[in-house]
Amino acid sequence: FITTGEENLLAILKRRWWKYMILGIIDIEANYLVVKAYQYTTLTSVQLLDCFVIPVVILLSWFFLLVRYKAVHFIGIVVCILGMGCMAGADVLVGRQQGAGENKLIGDLLVLGGATLYGISNVCEEYIVRNLSRVEFLGMIGLFGSFFSGIQLAIMEHKELLKVPWDWQIG
Q1: What are the φ and ψ backbone dihedral angles of 96, each rounded to 5 degrees?
Q2: Which residues form a coiled coil (predicted)?
């Protein structure tokens, strides 16, 4: 914080604050969507569909980081997507009941959305760590992630927060 030069916290915030703000929001929303999906679908579906992050990362890495993969990687992507499609179809058609909520399709879509956001976050992380600094990434994602998580908590869970008997032990 006190150091001078380009590694100074204030200099980093001045130049790239908006990028870390967007990345922090993407990261916390990915977590939120996947956790929210547990209310609607089965644990197995969430675990399997969360693997959708792999094709997302590979495709985004191909286009934005210029990483090149072999044919076997793309065969793996196809197998992954086919498995996820079968799992989602089985949830909707068979209607398995492993303690899940009513609408499994909504849960499956929430997981796919969260996995897509995880993929975006992972590729951005890779870019930052390659080109800037892993210390900078960890510090900024922690700063902005905490800030926006607190805001989302206050907005969405304010009634539950008021029910907590706050005292020094809980604090």
Answers
A1: -60, 145
A2: none
Which DSSP symbol is given to 115?
A: H
- The span from the CA of 39 to the CA of 108, in Å, is 11
Span 140-157, pLDDT tens digits: 888 888 898 889 888 888
Distance CA 168, CA 164 (A): 12
Residue type, 126: E
Domain spans of the chain? 1-40, 43-162
Q: How far is it, in rounded angstroms, from Cα 26 to Cα 33? A: 11
Report how far Cα 113 is from the mean position of its chain's Cα atoms.
9
Neighbours of 2 (CB within 10 A): 6
**pLDDT tens string 89-106:** 776 676 655 544 567 788
Cα angle, residue 83 at apex, residues 39 and 121 outer, rounded to 5°:
65
Coil/strand/helix, residue 169: coil
First to last CA, the chain: 27
Percentage, residues of the chain above pLDDT 70: 88
12-16-22-24 Cα dihedral, nearest 10 degrees: -10
